[in-house]
């Protein structure tokens, strides 16, 4: 393991992100194995949330059952490894509210949770399986939000 990957592993342990990931893996009964670069692969994640094929908590990368062999999707593995560095940059657990602020911004600007989320953009949208959606003006986004809460909106859907 390279020094930088060992440093990431230590920092994500000290900042409590990796211990949280290991607790989540144990509670959700994931199969754990060592991955590349000092990462830990948590396979067969089954709980409904988050809605993602893969996601990262510290140095632990969770994979849904349809990813039988995560090493066979190197672009996704690299995307999730970048998220692991983001936990270091955010000093661990503050990653969560910052990430969700990025989701909110992206939803406002594009109607999509990833397209303008800085965390997903820096991790690589395509590598994470996301398609970039066009941005809309803030005025149009706010009008869309205002219209969706209007009582005459009867289509049963809430546009984002």
UniProtKB/TrEMBL annotation:
UniProt entry keywords in alphabetical sequence: Membrane, Transmembrane, Transmembrane helix
Top-level taxon: Bacteria
Membrane-spanning residues: 6-27, 85-108
The protein's name: DUF4157 domain-containing protein
Organism the protein comes from: Neomicrococcus aestuarii
